[in-house]
Amino acid sequence: MKKQVKNNVYWVGKVDWELQKFHGDEYSTHKGSTYNSYLIQEEKTALIDTVWAPFAEEFVKNLAGEIDLQKIDYIIANHGEIDHSGGLPALMKHIPDKPIYCTSNAVKSLKGHYHEDWNFHVVKTGDKIDLGNGKELVFVEMRMLHWPDSMATYLTGDNILFSNDAFGQHFATEMLFNDQVDQCALFNESIKYYANILTPFSALLRRKLDEITALNLPIEIIATSHGVVWRDNPLQIVEKYAEWADDYQENQITIIYDTMWNGTKTLAEKIAEGVTAADPDVTVKVHNLAKRDENDLITEVFKSKAVAIGSPTIANNILHSVAGFIHLMKGLRFKRKKAAAFGCYGWSGESVKVINELMADAGFEIINEGYRNQWNPDDDAQKAAVDFGKALARA
To answer: pLDDT tens across 137-160, in order?
Structure first.
């Protein structure tokens, strides 16, 4: 069932309540997601994006129940990724000659995904389509936000920015608009989405936000590809993105560890105690990596000014869970964040050195040589861990 966004603009997407993982198994979606497709019915009719491939047939059937598919004049593909374009093969079987407007890189990705030579029309920033009734679609390339093929589409008259992946959230809801949902849940999902997907492109995003601002387009609604549509003060999420893109950090120190026989766990808790003793105003969070969702932990790292990473030594190295998490952080290219290492060992004790090297390679500023303890921490070792936490807070 279509839902009205504004005037002759309708949401015709799909709510995926059961989604738990996205991008393969890379991103956790505890609250599901939506795949937002939009239908604009002026003198000309335009369809902006489709849905994820598993829902393609359902999408086409529902769309055909709302409009004669032959009356669609233009198809806009803001992004070639399958969660946006997955409905195209099923749709194009019915209307194979209809024009698809997208970037030159999107032609490559769509052909690469579906091996079809549809009626592609390449557009670049500033290109327009006349829909009649005094309204136009204006295209804005959004390269690397978050694929090279990404773009946004702006509808004049109604002043709607169809922003694709920018400003979205993985958040399943029957409510269409941002003012209709729980605000804490909305912004938690928004910052998680940014931290895990868009952080590596923050510098590009800052420039793109400046470019969009320079276009002087009045924006009354931001219609994303996932989650809710921003209609109540829509620029609030743009302001948040500007803040998050500026090497974001809060007054938070996060301690993340894995452990074998709980010695490293004890160190983590004592380090946290020391941080709080030295700086009662700092937010301290302690997480066992083996018992927490890694995407939620990435969000905590994103919010932190410093992180302490702990692992016992095993086979002259660190636990593979910790190595994998540091690899994940490296790919996100965090800026202006400090790090410290800690861990217990029985015999050789290389884990702290390994963590320091990996965290430095991931772009973190290493605070000191770290803290390591042989065997299970006794009272003296626990006091030393508290002191290490105090030093971490002061750093």
So the answer is: 999 998 877 788 999 999 999 999
pTM of the model: 0.95
User: In this structure, are 158 and 86 located in the same domain?
Assistant: yes
> Where in the sequence is the domain holding 18, given as residue range(s)?
3-244
CA dist 139 to 80, 196, 283, 299, 346, Å? 15, 26, 42, 31, 61
On whether both 90 and 206 belong to a single domain, the answer is: yes
Report the chain's C-alpha Rg in angstroms.
Answer: 24
Q: With the C-alpha atoms ordered 244, 245, 251, 256, is the resulting torsion angle positive or negative?
A: positive
> Would you please indicate which residues are annotated as catalytic (active-site) residues?
23, 79, 81, 83, 146, 165, 193, 226
Burial grade of 220 (CB within 10 A; 0-12, 13-18, 19 or more): middle
- Beta strands 371-374 and 151-155 are unpaired
Pairing of strands 3-6, 9-11: antiparallel
* Domain count of the fold of the chain: 2
pLDDT in tens, 263-291: 999 999 999 999 999 999 999 999 999 99
- The answer for residues whose C-beta is within 8 angstroms of residue 251's C-beta and 6 or more apart is 281, 282, 283, 305
The domain that holds 289 is classified in CATH as 3.40.50.360
Residue bearing tokens 């009354």: 220
